[in-house]
């Protein structure tokens, strides 16, 4: 007997005395959660996203479409980046004003190779204002999940207001569960029992979010 069969057997025995006409689980558990907390304008929702991103120690920038290439060039120069990893579907215009050598998102790249990349630039699938969370889903402008987990510096571009929602329920409606979803709330960090914070343990140490709107 396999472990799966043993577990299912225990479940069946536990449910043996449940009447056949008992209320179905889907009806017994109430799902009337709040979809969002309070009412906000679009501008207030974007401001809340920026506030919560900063609270998680992300660095937030604002730009319009025309100014984005110059801002990205500045951010890469500020970090003295010698290489930048670029997903295959990233808008080429975003890098029009920088000559930092570009690294392709390759399936055969090793963790050591990715660790030698200074920066990575991606788009995003959606951003959640109430939690200050950026969600990546592996789309062409975001690349493989690992390219945003190994390099030390991640620049993530969020289109405002199209990619900004107020709450997690609203974000889930836009996402496909079968895609490789990565939920990011600030740079990677952890704390030991004495609450000493260490950043960059299981993801980028520096997260810069650019809110781009016209």
UniProtKB/TrEMBL annotation:
Residues 103-212 form the LUD domain. It holds the Pfam family LUD_dom. It comes from the Bacteria. This is Lactate utilization protein C. It comes from Streptomyces mexicanus.
């Amino acid at each position: 007997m396999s472990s799966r069969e043993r577990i299912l057997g225990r479940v069946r025995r536990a449910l043996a005395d449940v009447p056949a006409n008992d209320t179905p689980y889907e009806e017994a558990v109430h799902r009337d959660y709040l979809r969002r907390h309070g009412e906000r304008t679009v501008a207030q929702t974007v401001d809340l996203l920026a506030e919560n991103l900063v609270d998680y120690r992300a660095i937030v920038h604002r730009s319009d479409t025309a100014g984005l290439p110059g801002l990205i060039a500045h951010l890469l120069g500020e970090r003295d980046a010698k290489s930048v990893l670029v997903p295959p579907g990233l808008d080429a215009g975003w890098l029009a004003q920088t000559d930092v050598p570009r690294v392709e998102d390759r399936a055969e790249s090793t963790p050591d190779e990715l660790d030698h990349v200074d920066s990575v630039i991606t788009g995003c699938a959606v951003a959640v204002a109430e939690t200050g969370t950026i969600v990546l889903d592996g789309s062409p402008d975001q690349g493989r999940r690992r390219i945003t987990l190994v390099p030390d510096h991640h620049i993530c571009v969020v289109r405002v207001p199209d990619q900004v929602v107020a709450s997690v329920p609203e974000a889930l409606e836009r996402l496909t569960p079968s895609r490789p979803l990565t939920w990011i709330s600030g740079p990677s960090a952890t704390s030991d029992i004495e609450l000493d914070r260490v950043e960059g343990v299981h993801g980028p140490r520096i997260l810069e979010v650019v809110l781009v709107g016209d």
